[in-house]
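haha ok so turns out i had the wrong file open the whole time. this is the CORRECT one, sorry everyone. sequence first:
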Amino acid sequence: MKLYIVGAGPGASDLITVRGLRLLQEADVVLYADSLVSEELIKESKPTAEVLKTAGMHLEEMVEIMVSRLKQGKKVVRVHTGDPAVYGAIMEQISLLKSEGVEIEIVPGVSSVFAAAAELGAELTIPDLTQTVILTRAEGRTPVPDREKLQDLARHHCTIAFFLSATLTKKVINELLEAGWSKATPVAVVYKATWPDQKIVRSTLEHLDEDMKKNGIRKQAMILAGWALDEHIHEKDYRSKLYDKEFFHGFRPGVKS
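then structure:
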């Protein structure tokens, strides 16, 4: 028995991978997170497919359905939003599935963090400015490990991408300020990246909470913070070694000025 876990991408139905789309179209049974995955994408399922919405299901219920359909010899695809590897809650599913003798194949998807960066026209790693991106979430009802407290992570002063944190912006602001971030640090918020109702808000750390309130954003938002998000970064002289004419590598000899 083999289950396919497919990353649907951030929202737009044509941002699924070729492999993921093929599996979706071949599936006899499709389970998808209906609160987050595009209905337009799910319409690519074959007409005879059993399509099940999982937003209202608990873990054991979902797993029971998947195992029962697999035992019937059906091809089962579980569709997740974005990329399953990031806040996808797949390990708890895999743990139960493996105990039932189910083999798992995971198909990656475009994460909302990269969809948001693309919509912003941003590069998250700018030479001589920041070469590190931290993917994290603010601590709310779900705790984070003591070693990963936001204030400690923020002391790296790199680009930070905040998942699942749209209702916790005051906590984000306070933690970053405590870590020595400037109030003027650029912050960009992308609500429902690549969906038809996408909304982009550019702000600063100081005004992030009020700007999100003004725009009614309190869920399904990616928050990107750091100087790589400066709207005018392209006007500044940050250059990589990769395309420096004096920098040689295996495919190009250096040219002396």
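The chain has a mean pLDDT of 93.
again sry for the mixup
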